[in-house]
Write a structure and sequence with these properties.
mainly alpha
Length: 91
């Protein structure tokens, strides 16, 4: 695994727990607001939870696009594997 690919995978992997914390925190905050008698609307909680997930979807889309370009003929990973005769673990 080269350095850039490893870093990209780590970014995608490391952000998931943060997304779940924001999601569960938003749900807890909405529950608390309703429990305490708040009668207004809660669109700010929807934005607080939805926007990070949208950003994560964009990051994953870009990562998948990069992975597709690296793993086809002429791509970085494909060419490195071909240089080593497609031996497992040599990249």
């Amino acid at each position: 695994m080269n350095g850039e690919s490893g870093f990209s995978k780590r970014i995608v992997r490391d952000i998931r727990p943060l997304l779940w914390m924001v999601t569960l925190g938003g749900m807890a905050l909405a529950f608390f607001a309703v429990w305490r008698g708040y009668t207004g609307s809660l669109p700010w909680i929807t934005a607080m939870v939805g926007l990070p997930w949208s950003a994560h979807a964009a990051v994953c889309s870009c990562y998948m696009s990069m992975a597709k370009s690296d793993h086809r003929e002429g791509g970085i990973t494909y060419e490195a594997a071909r240089a080593h005769n497609f031996e497992e673990g040599r990249i």
